[in-house]
Specification:
Largest sheet of chain A: none
Radius of gyration of chain A: 30 Å
Oligomer: homodimer
Largest interface: A-B, 82 and 82 residues
Number of helices of chain A: 16
Structural class of chain A: mainly alpha
Shape of chain A: elongated
Amino acid sequence: MASASQPNAGSQACWWWLLKDLPEKTKNKVVNVAGKANKLGRDEPRRIIHCLKVGLALTLVSLLYYVHPLYKFFHESGVWAVLTVLLVLEFTVGGTLGRGLNRTFATLLGGALGVGAQHLAALSGEIGQPIVLGLCVMVLTAAVTFLRFFPEMKARYDYGLIILMLTFSMVSVSGYRDEDALTIAYERLLTIIVGCVIALLVSILICPVWVGEDLQRLIAANLEKLGSFLEGFSGAYCRISGDAQITIDQSFLQGYKSVLTSKHSEETMVNLARWEPGHGRFLFRHPWKQYLKVGTLARQCSYKIEILSGHLASEIEAAQEIRGEIQESCREMTRESGKALKELAATIRTMTRSTSMDFHIENSKSAAKNLMSLLETGLLEDSTTLLEIIPAVAVASTVMDIVTCTERISDAVKELASLAHFKSTISPVVTPEEP
Amino acid sequence: MASASQPNAGSQACWWWLLKDLPEKTKNKVVNVAGKANKLGRDEPRRIIHCLKVGLALTLVSLLYYVHPLYKFFHESGVWAVLTVLLVLEFTVGGTLGRGLNRTFATLLGGALGVGAQHLAALSGEIGQPIVLGLCVMVLTAAVTFLRFFPEMKARYDYGLIILMLTFSMVSVSGYRDEDALTIAYERLLTIIVGCVIALLVSILICPVWVGEDLQRLIAANLEKLGSFLEGFSGAYCRISGDAQITIDQSFLQGYKSVLTSKHSEETMVNLARWEPGHGRFLFRHPWKQYLKVGTLARQCSYKIEILSGHLASEIEAAQEIRGEIQESCREMTRESGKALKELAATIRTMTRSTSMDFHIENSKSAAKNLMSLLETGLLEDSTTLLEIIPAVAVASTVMDIVTCTERISDAVKELASLAHFKSTISPVVTPEEP
């Protein structure tokens, strides 16, 4: 990284020279966009690799045109292979495989149906032919368009349904003039298979991006963010009560916000991950849906954390003596829940069963019990009004909810560990080979 | 609807006859899918109309093949128009327009660049030509693929960027053999424009689905759901305290759940709505982003409601006498906030300014003030433990948060009303004409 920034400085000077005649506003805009591009690349270097992969795959498929023997075989229909590479090669292996399979099978089915429609139309005489063809196209596209509204179809086969319509219409409509519908269907299928194979090889062989691994990392990161918040809350809540004047650095308390709205990306990733073949520690039929379950529970926990975060912001006004009494329990509960969540995140990330989160969960539960008995023994004095205790009591109530939530997440992760055959900590850390 | 279900019964009998020889399991599956399809159509009859629209547009564009003079003009490239209709015609006008414009301009730009690349390559001699072309294709596709990672580009121009790569590769690569790259680029552009125009005409002229209107309806419905929950909560919370044994019908309390996770669909709809031209009460440059702001605030409110819903489930164990004291205030606050939210929903839906929500918000705020003074005057007796008051106090705290949240939503809706020039209630209800 450090060495890469050296030539960067040189090229920057070169860019400045190019920019120097531009008006100030344009210059700022260019610098702004360049900064964004730089950040995009640095945050996720795999993006840059992906761009190069697309360029490479396209150069490979262009050989169908440039190399004479290949051109003699494929003729102009080689252009379908070029289009296929561009349309099928996605950022992740799952995305590429899903689109490739959808495209191939939909082309096969659409081509077959198209040829069938051609034969059917040919039986109806010269005048009847376009009418029958038109009816077939209208009925099939209307039916397939309706299928696309089914949520299950939309999630996994949307692209295939579009290609099915495209191929059917192309073969049956253009076959009306070309006569040789079978050849069109066959050439299209062949070139699409060539394109898909090139896209898949490039996607899998060169720095593959497995969406399943990304999903696992996302779910683990989400649990980790919740854990960081809780640990940070534990510290901040303690410190305020010690000295109300201390300004807290709340930046690390913002991480959990992304968990609130991660539902859509989790669902998309699960849908793509299900296309991926077994690889490394992820065997075929890995229980991807269980990750969704963990993710949903984490999100429910994040709603409670959102409330806790609101309390933290308004916490300063709470009555000190009341909070002091229940503060130690809350601090213990959040700290232990936070540690448990981080342990769960590590369990998912390393795919290794661990029992240390049970210890933390037990700790947080016993702290909750302590709090309950503390509350039950009636610590209120006559002078205390309800208003003074509201903030502390509200925090205690939310924290107790979070303890319950953490336990539920732990159960879901344990289920995941047994479904996905996570390693036990006792066994030495070796990557298991595929059966 | 009633008349449509009559022939349905007849056709159902016909279907049963077709199914009767199938094994039980398959039969159940078919019935299951048919039920789902029926529900999809009934829930949103516009879906069925959309399917017919796709069929119609495709039949229209097929005329390029079937009608001889048209075929003589377009030849085989008419197939691009067929593909364009299928790829561009979306469920909503905004979607169709966005894809159509993306496709047209990207084809224009990609074609021009492709022809340019051809000329550049022609200068480098016979051996240099494929090398220069290959380099051009590789560099442009890699760069455009990188552009697709910018979130702003992804949201609005993703399809255009794909088509840009497609057209550029097609024109520059296939032009290497065909010689006449300009003709390829020109024919492709012309047929794509024909396809886009047909798709747009069908989309706008036949039962148009404006995504902007759907967005407005979604945001209003979300506020309405929150309002319904709060009103329902008000009733349920009261009833439990009256008689703890009453089982509450909580089905109407589930509606708000969809608000928790509506972020993605709201953002998608705003992106599509920005493509739509002014129509009816929606002038050009309608403040779509303000809807997003209202939606975000509604979601923040829904997190609090999620917590409240949890309290309602565990409410039965709370100490009766304590809750009785603050219950009336909470009931008042939720009822008035609920009414205010419903008024705000109506404001958005009818695009008519109203002041009645101010009345409800003032009511809820004064109820909150009452509660505060109630809490301040210290109603606790010696016998009361903290544990007994936790549920009631936690509810009170959450409800007070919700009152604040409702006021914030009201401010955002007022801003929307002034940005979008909502009608005032004083003026008679007439649809304003476009300037």
